[in-house]
């Protein structure tokens, strides 16, 4: 029973990783950049949610929406200021810039508001416990998982059915060919950052509700782990990020369940190393073949 | 319809086009022939906005379009079918065609043009829901052309439509190019198969190392000894 409970924890944690990993993978898919500032967008989202709930006295859904909107704008701002001028630069230049942006956000944020942590109020979502076959389940876990699933379904609909989603897929496959269709590549890239950042914002709010404590450097570790999740699923592949995130959450929970909870963080990176050695294209990646 | 005056185009420090001038009249099929690396594709990319000319003018219907963004050039009615088809292999045939009409808002017109594309290329209709990466080379060429037509172009730029295709299929594609031209679309065709290109074109320009070395009516060029020896396999 303990095991099943840990699995449920793992799924909750995993759905947070998955939401963050989606932003990594979408951005990588379209501009081939690992946006290391993405974990900090998640942090900003968490704080925006916190202030919406405590200062503006809003409930969960409006706070979630505000956080997603602010993060979407923030993501576009980062892209326009920091990454767009480097569009034709080397990939290492963009990567180093991403690390710089990440540090700038973290310490800029601390400079402005201080480093002290905050605690999410614990009555944002109902915390009833109910028993199913002897397993006690917290209603929060269910709600968190539900919100993550709904967001992922909406994302899939946007990517596959909407015009902007088709433009995103076209640009990520072949930017020049997309230009020839009349697609505005810059706007499409901005839209990708907006959507990915909005998901990170949602993850931030969910994280706050589930783990209570938030602080300005909270984005570092979940950000890196979400990156691992994205690589695990196959970087650039959207369903891969979803599955990779959930899987990583479950692996961590199982490691904790086995009594090695101190090793939790290390295991995520062991997974990264193993994937890079044995399956660098990830679970969902395939080796592309070209046709003449 | 299109007038190019003395353009110079560079890839970094390497000059790919050296003072090229040419003109295309409405309703014509004009072909650019020349060896690999002569600059034919570069010229098409400069027209469609993928490359910016450093000097010179590109004038389309009285407007200067040299250096404009690719999406505004598509909007003005120039579609470019790039070399190697460049279909979106990760999407279905239908999605590729929809992307061709990306800038259009007239739903009824889009639907009508879809039907027209199916008429020209019945194979695409059979494969509508298939991932376009699974199509044969010939089908991908058809898709690339159909996708470009979905933008309702008045000038169609075709880059090596015969590349890598079986002779029978090439014949079919070239027949369709003539059909498209008959419905009022002006065509600029880049082709290594000079014989074939001259057989459907009204006029031709011969490109060599970034310069136009010869131009004229197709019949004249076909008859010219120089062309025969250099490009038509000689006798």
TrEMBL record, chain A:
<dbReference type="GO" id="GO:0015192">
    <property type="term" value="F:L-phenylalanine transmembrane transporter activity"/>
</dbReference>
<keyword id="KW-0813">Transport</keyword>
<keyword id="KW-1133">Transmembrane helix</keyword>
<feature type="transmembrane region" description="Helical">
    <location>
        <begin position="7"/>
        <end position="30"/>
    </location>
</feature>
<feature type="transmembrane region" description="Helical">
    <location>
        <begin position="132"/>
        <end position="159"/>
    </location>
</feature>
<dbReference type="GO" id="GO:0005886">
    <property type="term" value="C:plasma membrane"/>
</dbReference>
<protein>
    <submittedName>
        <fullName>Branched-chain amino acid ABC transporter permease</fullName>
    </submittedName>
</protein>
<dbReference type="GO" id="GO:1903806">
    <property type="term" value="P:L-isoleucine import across plasma membrane"/>
</dbReference>
<dbReference type="GO" id="GO:0042941">
    <property type="term" value="P:D-alanine transmembrane transport"/>
</dbReference>
<dbReference type="GO" id="GO:0015190">
    <property type="term" value="F:L-leucine transmembrane transporter activity"/>
</dbReference>
<feature type="transmembrane region" description="Helical">
    <location>
        <begin position="189"/>
        <end position="212"/>
    </location>
</feature>
<dbReference type="InterPro" id="IPR052157">
    <property type="entry name" value="BCAA_transport_permease"/>
</dbReference>
<keyword id="KW-0812">Transmembrane</keyword>
<keyword id="KW-0472">Membrane</keyword>
<feature type="transmembrane region" description="Helical">
    <location>
        <begin position="262"/>
        <end position="284"/>
    </location>
</feature>
<dbReference type="InterPro" id="IPR001851">
    <property type="entry name" value="ABC_transp_permease"/>
</dbReference>
<dbReference type="GO" id="GO:0015808">
    <property type="term" value="P:L-alanine transport"/>
</dbReference>
<feature type="transmembrane region" description="Helical">
    <location>
        <begin position="50"/>
        <end position="78"/>
    </location>
</feature>
<keyword id="KW-0997">Cell inner membrane</keyword>
<keyword id="KW-1003">Cell membrane</keyword>
<dbReference type="GO" id="GO:0015188">
    <property type="term" value="F:L-isoleucine transmembrane transporter activity"/>
</dbReference>
<comment type="similarity">
    <text>Belongs to the binding-protein-dependent transport system permease family. LivHM subfamily.</text>
</comment>
Automatic annotation (TrEMBL), chain B:
<keyword id="KW-0067">ATP-binding</keyword>
<dbReference type="GO" id="GO:0015658">
    <property type="term" value="F:branched-chain amino acid transmembrane transporter activity"/>
</dbReference>
<comment type="similarity">
    <text>Belongs to the ABC transporter superfamily.</text>
</comment>
<feature type="domain" description="ABC transporter">
    <location>
        <begin position="2"/>
        <end position="234"/>
    </location>
</feature>
<dbReference type="GO" id="GO:0005524">
    <property type="term" value="F:ATP binding"/>
</dbReference>
<dbReference type="InterPro" id="IPR003439">
    <property type="entry name" value="ABC_transporter-like_ATP-bd"/>
</dbReference>
<keyword id="KW-0547">Nucleotide-binding</keyword>
<dbReference type="InterPro" id="IPR003593">
    <property type="entry name" value="AAA+_ATPase"/>
</dbReference>
<dbReference type="InterPro" id="IPR027417">
    <property type="entry name" value="P-loop_NTPase"/>
</dbReference>
<dbReference type="InterPro" id="IPR030660">
    <property type="entry name" value="ABC_branched_ATPase_LivF/BraG"/>
</dbReference>
<dbReference type="InterPro" id="IPR052156">
    <property type="entry name" value="BCAA_Transport_ATP-bd_LivF"/>
</dbReference>
<protein>
    <submittedName>
        <fullName>ABC transporter ATP-binding protein</fullName>
    </submittedName>
</protein>
<keyword id="KW-0029">Amino-acid transport</keyword>
<dbReference type="GO" id="GO:0015807">
    <property type="term" value="P:L-amino acid transport"/>
</dbReference>
<dbReference type="InterPro" id="IPR017871">
    <property type="entry name" value="ABC_transporter-like_CS"/>
</dbReference>
<keyword id="KW-0813">Transport</keyword>
<dbReference type="Pfam" id="PF00005">
    <property type="entry name" value="ABC_tran"/>
</dbReference>
<dbReference type="GO" id="GO:0016887">
    <property type="term" value="F:ATP hydrolysis activity"/>
</dbReference>
